[in-house]
Design a protein that fits this description.
- The protein is of the alpha+beta class.
- It is built from six helices and seven strands; from the N terminus they run βββαβαααβββαα.
- It is about 45% helix and about 15% strand.
- Helix 1 crosses helix 3 and helix 5 runs antiparallel to helix 6.
- The longest helix is centred in the last third of the chain and has 17 residues.
Length: about 150
């Protein structure tokens, strides 16, 4: 089954069908936002200034770097398990940049929903609407989940 990451509804990580990180293990909304943003932007390293603008969009205190360091240290500790590393999940912090890396076969719910919607639309466009209901149901199910409840912003 591999690794599955949920960023809609509850934020969680599953490995082979078992929850290894549950939303309660993230201390608060900033921890969840940091994780979800880095998963969403995993194809590139994210600069600390960019993360600060995401985490504190209205105003950054003079101690934002220390606060970001604390958040990223907690995230690194949360993600540092042999089980996650064996699945290809790595968290790197260096030179003021942060990145979560996932194996190519990792499943992320919001991406799976987008892919399912594309398959349903393609089936209809190609005149094979019988193939649309399955993927459309997957897309609708994921789209019904709340994205980062309690977190306001763009």
């Amino acid at each position: 089954m591999g690794i599955r990451i949920y960023v809609t509804g509850r934020v969680a990580i599953e490995v082979d069908g078992l929850v290894v990180i549950d939303e309660r293990q993230f201390r608060g909304k900033q921890d969840r936002l940091l994780f979800v943003y880095l998963v969403s932007e995993r194809t590139r390293p994210v600069a600390k200034e960019e993360l600060a603008s995401i985490l504190w969009p209205d105003e950054q205190s003079e101690s934002w770097e220390a606060a970001l360091s604390a958040l990223t240290s907690r995230l690194a500790a949360l993600l540092s398990s042999d089980q996650l590393a064996a699945q290809g999940l790595l968290f790197s912090r260096r030179l003021g940049q942060y990145q979560i890396r996932l194996s190519s076969d990792a499943w992320v719910d919001i991406e799976a929903g987008n892919s399912a919607l594309d398959r349903a639309e393609a089936a209809v466009r190609n005149g094979d609407s019988r193939k649309a209901p399955g993927p459309a149901a997957v897309a609708a199910s994921i789209a019904r989940r709340t994205f980062l409840p309690g977190v306001d912003g763009f």
